[in-house]
Amino acid sequence: MESDKRSQESPASDDRQLTTEDGKAMEINDKGVPIVTTVDGSTLAIISPGAERALTRKFDLRILPVLAIMYLFNSLDKSNLGNAKTHGLEKTLGLKGHDYNTILSVFFVPYVLTAPFLGILGKQYGPNRVLPLMMFTFGCCTLLVTAAKNFAGVMTLRWFLGMSESAFFPLVIYYQTTFYRRGELARRLAIFYAAQSIASAFGGLLAFGVFQIKSDTLAEWRYLFIIEGCCTILFSFFAFFYLPQSASTAKFLSPEEKELAYYRMQVDSSSVVNEKFNFRESFKIFKEWTSWLILAIEICLGVPLQSVQLFLPQIVARLGYNAVKTNLYTVAPNISGAVMLLVLAFASDYTRWRFPFVALGFLFTFLGMIIYVGIDVKHQLNVAYFACFMMTWGTSAPSVLLDVWYNNNIAHEGRRVVLTSIGVPLANLMGVVSSNIFQNKDAPKYIPALATTAAFGATGLALTLLLGAFMIFDNARRNKKVGRTIKVKDIPTERLREGPRAEEFRWFY
Questions:
Q1: For residue 28, which phi and psi values (nearest 5 degrees)?
Q2: Cα torsion for 365, 369, 370, 371, to the nearest 10°?
Q3: Could you give the angle at the alpha carbon of 15 between the alpha carbons of 349 and 12, nearest 5°?
Q4: Is 409 helix (H, G, I), strand (E, B) or coil?
Q5: Tens digits of per-residue pLDDT, 317-367?
Q6: What digits encode the pLDDT tens for the residues 163-176?
Q7: Which of 231, 257, 311, 446 has an alpha carbon 20 to 30 Å from 431's alpha carbon atom?
Q8: d(CA 2, CA 468)
């Protein structure tokens, strides 16, 4: 941030000026550069684009890698049952009938019920403390699966695993909104979320290696839970002492950088930076009908997302490979899913468009499922395997970009964390649907499950296009009312506390 004591005659315009909590005024000039001034009009500081780039590089190097590794372990601990199933989990535990599907399903009940409460705790006490504590807990649950002897033991541990993981992703999303501007968020969150796709790929490789262990003491699949659980617990201690509470309080920043971090969030993320949580004010987010449509899209997203995450090994198994090769053949689709996620997220940030890329992801999923159902897999192995790639392309990207999309349109920090803490778990709750549509009696084709998943993808595509069209129309209506074109970047978020009810509000679509 560059200091400049020269007097300024007047702010650029009333529409572009805001007043911060410490009595300073901020305006956005014609080039889109925020300027901080004192009340008498003299310039206190100019938010330099160069200084901003240097600051975001620090966040990218110090915050993102830690969050990505945390989420990698989160994804591994949640999805490792699929790998274990291919190597004798059901036989070892004596599972019968729908027992395996019940174990998968029970995870999502506490996941949804406890997420809003843990999200609120994260807002009150800081994600930097709550996230590592959650990580320690789900690491312990994973490790204890090693000692499970039957259906009841695993189901109990999966219940507590669901509780401990419930608000993890919502809190990470909120945490990143306190470091990055709205136009910077998608690609950063994508880099973080790519850890899930990498985790699925790494999980396949890890399972491939672990299943080579021959032991008379423990079943091979139990070593998978020992390794993943212990690594998760160890990393949680590091994260607890490393993560800063917020951008403006990070110890690795100089006083000038902390001030810059604060003003960045005030002008292009939050209405009040580091605002204390107010229950009544925060839950007003549900007075907006668009919030309910967002939740409907989350539901449509959840079925394809959970189907691919939980059952990709079973889908790939139809290609006719043995258990070891099946796990190995899940690696490439998951890696390609991570790559596609990054491509779409960077394109979204570059163009400052959200909904077209969310819709494109839904389209990929729909086409992948339809192709896989419609062909003769045994005689068209290459086409079937390519369809598996399309399935992963269409699940990762919409999950990230949908969350970024609605977070970009909520300046109130409390409302942001509430909607995210309900929307993300709601999508994951659809794992109950996925767990029960993939029935053993339908193996290996799983046509009813794939058709159902495709239908949810098509519905999500339609709702996304509908909401995007409304936002474009509403922005045009608001501009016509004031007689001039106002863009999203022209209005500091300090003035957008009430969201669409604010006259200056423009949708970030």
A1: -115, 120
A2: 100
A3: 95
A4: coil
A5: 888 777 777 777 888 888 888 889 899 999 999 999 999 999 999 999 999
A6: 999 899 899 999 99
A7: 231
A8: 38
